Amino acid sequence: MQCSQLATVKHRLAVGKPLPFNVRNADHTLLLARGQVVGSVEQMEALFTRGALVDLAELRGPQEQIATAPPEQLPALWQQCMSRLGEALQACEKEGFRQALDEMSAPVQALIARDSDLAIFQVLRQDANRHTQYGVNHSMHTAITAFLVAQRLGWDDTAVQKVFKVALTMNLSMLELQGQLAEQRTPVTAEQREAILSHPQRSVQMLELAGVTDRDWLDGVADHHVAPDGSGYPAGRREVNDFAALVRRADIYTAKLSPRLSRDAMAADRAGRAMFMYDPGNSMTAALVKEFGVYPPGCFVKLVSGETAVVVKRGPSVVTPLVAVLTTPSGAALIDPLPRDTSRRENAIASVIGEHAVPVRPAPEKLMTLALA
To answer: At CB < 8 A and 24+ separation, what contacts does 146-151 make?
Structure first.
């Protein structure tokens, strides 16, 4: 453990505020835990005088920690950061939501920047509570997708981070309803239809109450269902900013990849073709489909060998990704997934398959580890 004198970071401390890191004695034993409060100026000065220490590793911000983390730690970091971001979204009506959203978004954005294959994997292969938490999960997946596509389009860092926030908050006012609809087999009711049609403006109102004043962000949320031909909602609108335009496409694409109780997820190759047919010639759609490719990380495939596999990393071409084999050619489940290079003829991909055709489902963390090899 490498430590520094607490006095060297006194600018990060405040009397009456929770400590942002653990404080240690000269022998490195714990003196005060992160989150404890120093109650007076005298107590703070006493810590400096006694030579209290802080671990240098704890002084790094989450983005720096993620940028320098060993690759084997990334799957666990993804799980932790996505969970915390989801919790922040679910607390959207509580005080401090705006700050929590900023704090929890930054680590996820750092993870996307660190490894885009693992980012795409999150969009396709987050299976836990996928129906009941559909609203939260869908918002996070759309945000990841919008972030990646904005980067591919060459947007500057500020715009990339902003479109992430637009996508993340587009459905704030109907997160619970989305979970209900994902488990609902009956037609949408009149009351539900009204909630769906009004959710963009209600989400904007929630953001304004949380202290958001950025007009591009608010307009992006308000208009993320506006279609160029005027068929979206609010009805009759056609012109929107780039944030709304990109988020609408990311929203549609990730919805196709997401299963509901009433329907299976659309296969990734079909979802890409559907986007091209829906929106031919649009540069945002072209960038989205190119970013995810024919076989994006997280989709299930059948190899010419008869083995069932899951894509874990994009390869040298759009049709030759790295996959993890889950079964033998006869369909028997493997105890541990095995990596395969599909650029080799004997390992070539024959087709994309749906989840229902996969007899074994290893933990996402295990599969992500293979992508780091």
So the answer is: 146/246, 146/247, 146/250, 147/109, 147/112, 147/119, 148/112, 148/116, 148/119, 148/120, 148/291, 149/246, 149/249, 149/250, 149/284, 149/287, 149/288, 149/291, 150/246
Asked whether residue 120 falls in the same domain as residue 265, the answer is yes
Query: In the prediction, which pLDDT does 130 show?
Result: 58
Distance CA 357, CA 373 (A): 26
Q: Are residues 139 and 196 in the same domain?
A: yes
Report the CATH number at residue 237: 1.10.3210.10
DSSP 263: B
Distance CA 129, CA 40 (A): 45
Does residue 286 share a domain with residue 306? no
Tell me, yes or no, whether 87 and 52 share the same domain: no
In this structure, the answer to whether residues 37 and 120 fall within a common structural domain is no
Q: How many domains does one find in the chain? A: 3
Q: Is the same domain home to 304 and 278?
A: no
In the predicted model, residues of the chain with pLDDT beneath 70 are 126-132, 373
279 and 365 both lie in a single domain: no
- The span from the CA of 187 to the CA of 373, in Å, is 46
Q: What is the pTM of this model?
A: 0.84
Q: For residue 95, which of 254, 206, 245, 226 has the smallest C-alpha distance?
A: 206
Q: Of 292, 212, 304, whose CA–CA distance to 250 is shortest?
A: 292
Cα–Cα distance measured from residue 203 to residue 169, given in angstroms and rounded to the nearest whole number: 7
d(CA 311, CA 273): 18
Distance of CA 239 to the CA centre of its chain: 28
Structural domain including 209 reads: 65-292
The pair phi, psi for residue 32, each rounded to 5°, is: -135, 130
Q: Are residues 76 and 92 in the same domain?
A: yes
Determine contact, residues 175/139, Cβ cutoff 8 Å. Answer: yes
Per cent of the chain over pLDDT 90 is 59
What one-character DSSP code corresponds to residue 357? G
Q: How far apart are CA 350 and CA 236, in angstroms?
A: 44
